[in-house]
Structures are given as structure tokens and as C-alpha cells.
């Protein structure tokens, strides 16, 4: 654990300049990790435009992203790299369960869960953030093809499409539901590595739970994470908040 008990600045994704909130999945991972380890932090928000402008200059890193921590050892970027930093102990390791499990979960989240939830997340984010950040998002994430985001925005206004896409996302999370069921049957858990506290594997998945809480007008927590199809996933998400002590995700306004 760090000897300095003052809060560490943790930078996440905000929608407007001056908002000290985080609506992105990646900084949520670090929020859970730090909370689990009892490391105090102070959340600071940066928009996409700020990250690719002033934050690059401030950190001296042209590839800086969020989450980023400002530590006594300098700037640390990326949730996995932050999880490897010195805060953990042998008794409370963020990589309990082994690197292979954590790498598998990380890959599954970045590929499968990302693919399932982004169609529901991206149209909200594009419209919710400031104009400069929306322009950056369009250029960097969609190659400047506005027809792609326009199509997603139009689809997101169709209740049937939202329900169908949410059902597909629940299908993806069915993998986690089965894993949690197997752990429960073996008397292990309630967390992904079979531990009694959240590890980075849990934080990896929970990142998208936290990001889902911000989305409107539809309620992704209700439609996906706390749906009756996924009772163990629903209970797992509640346990992550309860045991880690992280602030419960909520709509940012």
C-alpha cells in the first residue's frame, strides 16, 4: 500500500470541460481496483478533445488515454498497467486466479462484451459530449463516416432494435452467468476468480457496467445487467459495489 494517504488524481472521461465525472468503461476498471485496495483517489474528468490536446502536453505522452493516474512515480496510463502498480499485496492481489484467467477475461471484455454493448453506448456518447469531442470521436473512431453514427442514432430510437440489441448483449453476458453458476456450485466466489473480493478480472467486466449506467434514454442496467435472464450477473454487480466500496454507478446528471 502507498504510504501517502492523500487522494491520488485519477483521470476519467467526461462529457464537458470542468466535469469531474467518468462515463467511460476503462476508468471504471481503475475505480474498482483502487477502491478494492483501499487506495484513496480523486476523480478528475477530461473530454476526448482535452485528452488529445492539453492532456497530451501535460503528461508529455502523445498516446495518453484514460484512465491515467498521477502518482509519486509519475503518470501511469492504462487500467492493466495501473493494476500492476505497487498498491496490491500478496494477501489481496488484483491478479488472484492467475494471469491466464485475467488475460482471458480482458480479451473477452475487449472483443465480445465491447462488441455487444458499443452499439447501445456509442450513439448516446456521441450526442451527450461536447461538439469538439463528438467531432474527434467521429474522426478517430468511425473514420469520419458520419453515416455510421447517424445510422446508430436512428436505430437507437427504435424500441424494438434496442430490445433486440440488449438481448444479444445479455447473450454475451451469459458466458459470465455460466461461470458464476459453476463457481457457486463449487462453493467459491462470489467473484470471477473464485475470491471473496473483486480482482482485476471483475473490474474488467464491471467497467462496462459502470459505463452502461450513464446511457439514456434507455436503461441499460435494467435491460442488460439486472435483467431476469442474468440473476447471478445482477447479484455479482451488486457485490462488486458492496465489497469494493466503489461509488455505485449512476446517471451523471
From TrEMBL:
<dbReference type="InterPro" id="IPR004045">
    <property type="entry name" value="Glutathione_S-Trfase_N"/>
</dbReference>
<dbReference type="Pfam" id="PF13409">
    <property type="entry name" value="GST_N_2"/>
</dbReference>
<dbReference type="InterPro" id="IPR036249">
    <property type="entry name" value="Thioredoxin-like_sf"/>
</dbReference>
<dbReference type="InterPro" id="IPR036282">
    <property type="entry name" value="Glutathione-S-Trfase_C_sf"/>
</dbReference>
<feature type="domain" description="GST N-terminal">
    <location>
        <begin position="25"/>
        <end position="85"/>
    </location>
</feature>
<protein>
    <recommendedName>
        <fullName>GST N-terminal domain-containing protein</fullName>
    </recommendedName>
</protein>
Amino acid at each position: 500500500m502507498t504510504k501517502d494517504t492523500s487522494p491520488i488524481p485519477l483521470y476519467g472521461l467526461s462529457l464537458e470541460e470542468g466535469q469531474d465525472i467518468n462515463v467511460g468503461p476503462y476508468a471504471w476498471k481503475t475505480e474498482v481496483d483502487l477502491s478494492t485496495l483501499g487506495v484513496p483517489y480523486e476523480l478528475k474528468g477530461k473530454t476526448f478533445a482535452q485528452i488529445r490536446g492539453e492532456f497530451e502536453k501535460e503528461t508529455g505522452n502523445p498516446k495518453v488515454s484514460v484512465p491515467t493516474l498521477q502518482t509519486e512515480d509519475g503518470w501511469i496510463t492504462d487500467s492493466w498497467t495501473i493494476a500492476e502498480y505497487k498498491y496490491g499485496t500478496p494477501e489481496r492481489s488484483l491478479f488472484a486466479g492467475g494471469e491466464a484467467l485475467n488475460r482471458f477475461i480482458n480479451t473477452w471484455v475487449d472483443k465480445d462484451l465491447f462488441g455487444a454493448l458499443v452499439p447501445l453506448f456509442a450513439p448516446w456518447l456521441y450526442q451527450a459530449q461536447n461538439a469538439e469531442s463528438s467531432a474527434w470521436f467521429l474522426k478517430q473512431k468511425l473514420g469520419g463516416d458520419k453515416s455510421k453514427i447517424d445510422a446508430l442514432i436512428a436505430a437507437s430510437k427504435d424500441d424494438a432494435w434496442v430490445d433486440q440489441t440488449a438481448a444479444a448483449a445479455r447473450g454475451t453476458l451469459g458466458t459470465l452467468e455460466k461461470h458464476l453458476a459453476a463457481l457457486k456450485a463449487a462453493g467459491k466466489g462470489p467473484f470471477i476468480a473464485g475470491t471473496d473480493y473483486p480482482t482485476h478480472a471483475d473490474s474488467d467486466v464491471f467497467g462496462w457496467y459502470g459505463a452502461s449506467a450513464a446511457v439514456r434514454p434507455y436503461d441499460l442496467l435494467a435491460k442488460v445487467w439486472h435483467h431476469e435472464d442474468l440473476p447471478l450477473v445482477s447479484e455479482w454487480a451488486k457485490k462488486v459495489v458492496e465489497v469494493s466500496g466503489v461509488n455505485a454507478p449512476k446517471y451523471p446528471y
